[in-house]
Description:
This protein is α/β, with parallel strands linked by helices. The protein has two domains: about 5-125, Response regulator (Rossmann fold), CATH 3.40.50; about 135-225, Winged helix-like DNA-binding domain superfamily/Winged helix DNA-binding domain (Arc Repressor Mutant, subunit A), CATH 1.10.10. It has eight helices and eleven strands. The strands form three sheets. It has a five-stranded parallel sheet with strand order 2-1-3-4-5, sandwiched between helices. Strand 8 (about 145-150) and strand 9 form a beta hairpin. Mean pLDDT is about 90; it is low at about 125-130.
Amino acid sequence: MYRILIADDEPDIVAMLKDYFEMNGYEIITAYNGSEAISQSGKNPDIILLDVNMPDADGLTVCRTVREYVSCPIIFLTARIEDSDKIAGFAAGGDDYVIKPFSIDELGARVAAHIRRDRRSASGDGGADMHSVRFFGSLAVDYSAKTVTAGGQPLEFPKKEFEIIELLSMNAGQVFDKERIYERIWGYDAEGDSSVVAEHIRRIRSKLAAVNESRIETVWGMGYKWVK
């Protein structure tokens, strides 16, 4: 079953598209603003239907933000009809441009065609280079490449610091005490002290604070957790 991310700030359009594509056998995930669209892009959709005019971040910004990590086709949905707008959409990494109001059957045909083309391309080159990435505000944590970026700019985290980010962010909301983090990252047989975890957490927080992000929360008497 192919997965479609529908991102539009008009609930009626989202509901209409969701009903149509579900009836045609697709799995649907939705977003109603730019921030949600960025976050939902981490769920590995096979195609994204992306409204250009959305709050928080417009469609062009969303496209530029996720394109490094998301290789699937992106179709812009918009009422804009100027050539300059189309050029901007393609430059941002979009694959197609559908003008509102549109024929839903035509949109369905375009979606199917883009997915077929994308699948053929992937099978022809031995498989797509798939990233496993999650978005948290301006942060993108790429678990495949072992990198963290903020607003598209790379942040430098040594191996142990990234492994702590990986552990906490992949289990967002779950509390880990220092001893458990130490065992998971350094290993049961490591010679050292779990107090080293606190120093690594301090360094991570300092680097995140420099880009106005605060993702690691101390749960007093219990440990640390990653805040979505």
